[in-house]
């Protein structure tokens, strides 16, 4: 959930099973009996489920459906899809395992959870790849049909883990998912291979029964998805229902669980579930509307940013133009050309694409035109880990250009927050006539959470007037247009778009004379222009940093971007254990909030967790001369709250 | 080539507002001092473009020149229109964004052989295949001028330059062949010093809906002086230059006694001495032929070293759907189909739940 939640709800949270003492508390729960089948029903406050299978097993779809059911039921939730870069890695191998983790609760939660309470393993590879993350005592549902000699040998199981006692510490449910699915679909006259494909829906049905999820949404979804193949649609619905019925009737599943809606955690409003890339796409469309400018996206496909290109291309009825360019450079080139013409120009990419776009970003700095550069960060360097998350492009965004080329940087902190961050980035770009970086990442892009849908009239006005006439009077009284005469407040130059009579002018990447914009190689003028461009960015209005410090702590944890969820969860754990700690999170990385230096100096210790090797910490040390301590992780995954809490505790005690 | 001097504003040109008053060449000169080397061929091209613009009769605020990097790319500074001097090789992509988002503009790209064919080769071919409504003026001087004299992607093999003291190893591009191969709908070639021919080609390009590539042979009198002398010197030119005119037999030579015919055995084109026997076989130039085959074959007649048998004029001019129009049509179709976007409905989506306080 985002920071919209009330503080009371924030206190009743994942701190419940704090592990600072090393002991994992059981899930809190009450017990009852379902009147229908006499099976026991337990009440839980939260659950973490991980679906894992082969890349071709449809685990992402299964996770998405369970998420939708859960969202419509009204739980708070947070998701973590995790999949390989290969489209179809060799079947049954460890690199081919795809998983989807979902954390849902009757209260406000912040992360997809550290460790699953339930693992669904569709094959031996999925079990092997995930078992280390599963705490003892957790439930494991395995598809026994896949635990035959070859698939087990493929991943190095010499003996069957379901039989050799290695899973004794877990609550294992062996289910012949494939056989049961084929059996359930025998009326449909499908080939074995076709029928087998529905086994993910069988598993979804079983889990939906276990957690009392509503089913109508999934049935409607399946009928829509396979509208052109009604037989396949009905087969999937049948498999889904068979899974549900299997849970209800078989004795192996003696208990089902209820997780009540998180009504207390949410302020009044209408909600939907949303992923980071979808929220970002909507933020861009909204920004175009709010600015009353056509939105123009120039982009080249790249993981994990392509979804934004896909989404925006579906909304042409908002006047959105999407241009899939020949390369990353042309993507930003077209966006900049459109900005010159008076559009809200946007380019979307990931780190390797930013590297290619650097020269054009420098041109945009020189031209002083509004432009949004959306970087969905992934593991680097080079191709790195395309489907995994990282925050290691901060310094690239900050400094990755020739010359002094300052660019504002905005970072969203949760999936839903990508909406607001996009609007904020557009505000800065339009007001100050500058390219702006938005640094999201793979975790935010693909993760999802409930979002309180904003009233459109509550959104900010982004309208920016174009220049319409002369803005300067020469000594002889002639009225002229000077393209580089600045607004004294914002230092922005006028945005004079082609088609405006009398304002014909030429701009370019060569240094320009202050005011006239004519080519100038004058040393003093260059010095002035470099300093002025820097001053313009330094003077951008950003809100002061808000510190959450209820108990007057001596240690501050400061983060940026997608680490918000894990850091906040860790902070809650510490506080629940009686350990005071202050927390603050940066939305603006350039310029920093005005009060940042003051905030940093008011704490004895500052800890900066980052999914890189300390890039923000370096900026803080350089600018404020504070002894900021880094806590870093670059394994392609988001921080776990437990691990962060331990690290913060150590920092406090050190 | 148009039959009359009267410019026929095509459907796309009609989207660009017209000038209210009659324009003159002076209207298109900016107040900036032109800073090419004295004697540079660029001056002649600039004068021809400034001289031709009034004939177009478009509001000059609706004209934009976008360039890359290189000597010729300074061009926009000297035009009293909107302009952008961008970065090396990228002008076609920037111009694509401008043209596709603003169909009320006439967008021109000014580029050179290094800018368009080396660092920016990718953008050039993709603009051509998409058929974006751009007029691309490619100044080809077969040398890198601004960086002081290295060989370019159109320099002849063996060329001795600062970076190739033992001679260049690179086989050159033929820009016209390249453009035809890249699905260009309009390809022409002209020469900087022939103002009349240059203007006629500009006129045809301006009239063309879609990407028009105009290769302009341009003399760099500092680093590659006389590169096109064979095409300019009256005596030599008669033998070297093949002037193409749509609908006319392809004849050249001092006496008009050479012609281009198709070799019946290979299907290729070749130059022959025209006799009464073979006169009927002389190819009649058809710039509007659907198939690019003959245009491509014409582009291959020139000898890359000597420039003998260099065709100039409009090699190819065919109509096919223009990217800007298609993009705009999709926006209109989406509005027609789904109604003008409703932000509130979009944000709400289909799957919501309500929390009551």
UniProtKB/TrEMBL annotation, chain A:
Which residue ranges does the record assign to the Pyruvate/ketoisovalerate oxidoreductase catalytic domain? 56-243
GO terms for molecular function, please?
Answer: magnesium ion binding; oxidoreductase activity, acting on the aldehyde or oxo group of donors
Chain segments carrying region Disordered: 18-39
- Keyword Oxidoreductase found: yes
**Keywords associated with the record:** Oxidoreductase
Gene Ontology biological process terms from the UniProt entry: response to oxidative stress
Outline the extent of the Pyruvate:ferredoxin oxidoreductase core domain. Answer: 553-623
Protein's UniProt name: Oxidoreductase
Q: Which residues form the Pyruvate flavodoxin/ferredoxin oxidoreductase pyrimidine binding domain?
A: 298-510
Pfam annotation, one family: PFOR_II
TrEMBL record, chain B:
Q: Give the superkingdom in one word.
A: Bacteria
Question: What Gene3D superfamilies does the entry give?
Answer: 3.40.50.970
Could you tell me the keywords of this UniProt record? Oxidoreductase
GO molecular function terms noted in the UniProt entry: 2-oxoglutarate synthase activity; magnesium ion binding; thiamine pyrophosphate binding
Which Enzyme Commission numbers does its entry carry? 1.2.7.3
Q: Where is the Thiamine pyrophosphate enzyme TPP-binding domain?
A: 69-216
In its UniProt record, which GO terms are filed under biological process?
cellular respiration
Pfam families cross-referenced by the UniProt entry: TPP_enzyme_C
Q: Which InterPro entries match?
A: 2-oxoacid:Fd_oxidoreductase, THDP-binding, TPP_enzyme_TPP-bd
Q: What is this protein called?
A: 2-oxoglutarate ferredoxin oxidoreductase subunit beta
Q: Which organism is it from?
A: Streptomyces microflavus DSM 40593
